[in-house]
Design a protein that fits this description.
The protein is an alpha/beta fold. It has helices at 123-129, 147-157, 179-186, 200-203, and strands spanning 2-5, 11-16, 21-26, 40-41, 44-46, 60-61, 65-67, 71-75, 78-86, 97-105, 108-112, 134-138, 161-165, 191-193, 196-197, 209-213. Helix content is 14%, strand content 34%.
């Protein structure tokens, strides 16, 4: 499995599906945010909520299977569960709703939290999410959870690999907090890499680590 990050909350996951490699794309952004969105192909496209910095479907090509709401889905050998959550800590009164996605492919469980605004997850949400190998978590505050709250979510879900997202980047017009705030609170420097390549056997004896992906 290969995980690429294009900045903000925009990811592409390339995994072995039932018969062929499958491209799962999550939260493509609009160029309005100041970053240039790449054109990517998707077999499955996930949108956590309909704000312009997360749902620019025009940046995604191919005849994809589209998901933008809670529920259970299975296509091309990939299982996806959308879990209801809030975009703020006031039960959606300020920014509405958000979908957390649990993606299972190659026996690896990945979770993309979208623009989660809840300060912590509820017991029912944690139970639905289940075991987490790779967690993509917003850490930039302002519109989502901040670094301190992100640490709490990490402690609740206990992933093997943590990939921070949705934080300040050069050129980004959305004002967010810096990645360094999260790393300092976590007490780690993070392992930097262009893209993450993993297989199930890599995770079996792995201690938790933070992977900081370079956006491309």
């Amino acid at each position: 499995m290969e995980i690429k990050w294009f900045g903000h909350s925009f990811f592409q996951i390339l995994a072995k599906g039932k018969d062929e490699k499958v491209s799962v794309v999550v939260d493509p952004f609009s160029k309005k945010i100041g970053l240039k969105p790449p054109t990517v192909k998707a077999d499955i496209l996930l949108v956590t909520h309909h704000h312009f910095d997360h749902d620019c479907v025009q940046a995604v090509k191919n005849d994809y299977f589209f998901i933008d709401e809670p529920g259970e889905y299975e296509t091309k050998g990939v299982f996806i569960q959308g879990i209801f959550s809030f975009h703020d800590d006031k039960e959606g009164k300020e920014r509405g709703e958000n979908v957390i996605y649990k993606i299972v492919a190659e026996e690896i469980g990945l979770v993309h939290l979208g623009d989660l605004g809840q300060r912590e997850l509820e017991k029912e949400q944690i139970e639905k999410i289940g075991e987490v190998d790779v967690l993509m978590v917003p850490v930039g505050g302002v519109y989502t959870i901040c670094a301190k709250e992100a640490k709490k979510i990490v402690e609740q879900l206990k992933p093997k690999i943590v990939i921070p997202m949705h934080y300040a980047l050069p050129g980004l017009k959305v004002k967010l907090e810096k990645l360094e705030n999260f790393l300092k609170i976590m007490g780690e420097k993070g392992e930097r890499m262009e893209k993450l390549k993993i297989k199930k056997s890599d995770l079996e004896k792995m201690k938790r680590k933070i992977v900081v992906l370079n956006y491309t």
